[in-house]
Amino acid sequence: MTRRETAHPRTVADLDSGQLPMVRAEKVRKHFGPLEVLKGVDLEVERGEVVCLIGPSGSGKSTFLRCINHLETVDGGRIWVDGQVVGYQRRGRKLLELGDREICRQRTEIGMVFQHFNLFPHMTVLQNLIEAPLRALREPRDEATARALALLEQVGLADKAGAYPRHLSGGQQQRVAIARALCMRPKLMLFDEPTSALDPELVGDVLTVMRELAESGMTMIVVTHEMGFAREVADRVVFFDAGQAVEVGPAQQVITDPRHARTKAFLAAVR
Amino acid sequence: MTGSTTRPEGRPAHDAGPSGPRREAGPAGEREHTDGMAADDLTVVSKRHPGRWVTAIALLLVAAATLRSVFTNPRFGWDVVNTYLRDVSIGRGLLVTLELTAICMAIGIILGVVLAVMRLSANPVVRSAAFLYVSFFRGTPVLVQLLFWYNLAALYPQLTFGIPGVSLDANQLITPILAALLGLGLNEAAYMSEIVRAGIQSVDHGQGEAAGALGLTKMQTMRRVILPQAMRVIIPPTGNETIGMLKTTALVSVLAVPDLLYSAQILYARNFQTIPLLIVASIWYLAVTTVLTIGQFYVERRFSRGNRTLPPTPVQQFRQLLRTHTPMATGRSTP
């Protein structure tokens, strides 16, 4: 847990200039059949930074997020996480896709939270949390269990360790999913519309957990429609439209005073 | 049945006689409000189902007639049945049947999982191989397959398996039992692979993604996340397959494998008590399928862990039946 203890700088200016960005995406392209979903996206996310990806559905923001942990393969460009190219290794002028084992090792360092939680329904909450630490990190069971219980405490669900996911509300399930991702002690957390499938009154609990996580210095990339959350918690906001990062800037500025016409139109429509 | 109905006294006036102008005046609901009865004075009477009594009595009569015939017709030979029910050779035959069922299902399940994973492979050659296997074994009668394996020596007198120095006499190697195991097991694998494939495909796509995002390998994801959830879909038809397999093993009597049916046949070939011995075999088949059905229920219950509702056990079902006061008069009530 050394990472947690180091105080992370919250703004880009505070960063040690010698440090690599946590995520660097360069001209990322992706198409599904004839449909071009990503048309060359560039983005850098600094350590400890919280970046929200906003934009209309189908604009490619979720696909971009899924490329960062190689759930989607890219058709062009490169993504680095902590200085390592995700999913590929370079041989001369070629990028060769890595083997299953190597990709899995990279993914253990990147936590992901899904819109539909995707908890394992046949396992209890505690089993959900310790499954990957036991199997992928080969940790001793008592170590993983201790950390899992601490994380459940942190997300306010200490009493649900023995419950099955289906007996929990959507908000509780999503908090378990966040704890499950954190149990791997990731360097980076990806959130794919974490509150979109929740009843309105359950959104708050999940956002609170995410806010606390951001304050603890975790690097986070969040695809969201929660403009309030983006404005308050994010350091920067990226507006996606038609497969491109159209506008990137400080959260407050992009949301309250967008420069680009498409951003203005989108924000006017969602407000 | 209407005798038990207690009618409230003092029926509303407009119900007893024609009241033309009022009936046209407003909708039916409004008239109800004006009948002057307080809700507390009315008794609720469920709809009656006289048809249920008629069919129930008719079926009970048929059952009684059948039972009477079964016990009065001396040709059933119940005393002979009683003697042979615990006969040693019948018992040995039953053991052979149980062994065949267990081993063939084991072959079927293991090979079926492999074939199902092959069917879902990204490699088109692997996919086609599994597809061809399934179409061949599902497309030919299992009796024909059994005879094929039994007569393998006619096709390949010497089995070398392509390994230098290995040459086995097919006639000696393929015993009736081995032919039965190969025929039934390989055939079962084709059916099991379809069941397993349906189970794997029933698991939400997000489950595999979540496991992958956590850093579990494809093998770990399949073993720890996908297959346990697929079990809910795989277990019920597998139970049916096992029960079906128990009965299908009777086919091996054509290969002179001394299973339950063939043991009975050997006995009645000597003493001509055909019907009683077939009844003996049937009783044992029925007994084992009953045990398997009960086992299937509890296995299914175990694999639906994490579900909001578990299916009730027979004891729970019985209690529930007692709680519904008149099963013949009302519909199924939920606790």
UniProtKB/TrEMBL annotation, chain A:
Q: What's the domain of life for this entry? A: Bacteria
- Catalyzed reaction equations: a polar amino acid(out) + ATP + H2O = a polar amino acid(in) + ADP + phosphate + H(+)
The segment(s) forming the ABC transporter domain are 23-267
Whether Oxidoreductase counts among this entry's keywords is: no
Keywords carried by this UniProt record? ATP-binding, Nucleotide-binding, Transport
Annotated Pfam families: ABC_tran (PF00005)
Enzyme Commission number(s): 7.4.2.1
Tell me which InterPro entries the record gives. Answer: AAA+_ATPase, ABC_ATPase_HisP-typ, ABC_transporter-like_ATP-bd, ABC_transporter-like_CS, MetN_ABC_transporter-like, P-loop_NTPase
State one molecular function term (GO).
ATP binding
What SMART domains does the annotation carry? AAA
| PROSITE patterns, alphabetized | ABC_TRANSPORTER_1, ABC_TRANSPORTER_2
Name the family the entry cites: Belongs to the ABC transporter superfamily.
Q: What name does this protein carry?
A: ABC-type polar-amino-acid transporter
